[in-house]
Amino acid sequence: MIFISFLSNFVFSIVIPSLPAFLVSLGAPPYLNGWAVAANSAGTFLASPLLGFWSDRRGVKEVINH
């Protein structure tokens, strides 16, 4: 769970600030930045409980090594 939290914080501190420039280089419309940030937040919101449940049932080593 600490690794998942680290990845989430890494995305918000490194990737998300550089996302608008990347989308401009692709020629994407400006509103797509909001959708990309929302998709990241929704993915974290859904994945955290699911990985936590899996970790509780099967053990942390399987979740990390899988």
Can you walk me through this structure?
With 66 residues, this protein is an all-alpha fold. It has a domain at 30-66. Helices cover 88% and strands 0% of the residues. The protein is built from three helices and no strands. α1 (2-26) runs antiparallel to α2 (32-58). It is elongated. The two termini are 14 Å apart.
Write the layout of secondary structure elements.
Blueprint: H1 2-26, H2 32-58, H3 60-65
Structural class: mainly alpha
The helix-strand sequence is: HHH
Q: Low-confidence segments, ≥5 residues, pLDDT <50?
A: none
Number of strands: 0
Q: Give the C-alpha Rg.
A: 15 Å
> Whole-Å distance between the termini?
14 Å
In percent, how much strand structure appears in the residues? under 5%
| Helix content range | over 70%
Question: What is the 3D shape?
Answer: elongated
Mean pLDDT: 82
Give the number of helices. Answer: 3
Q: What profile does the largest beta sheet have?
A: none
Oligomer classification: single chain
Output the keywords.
66 residues; mainly alpha
Summarize the structure.
The chain has 3 helices and no strands.
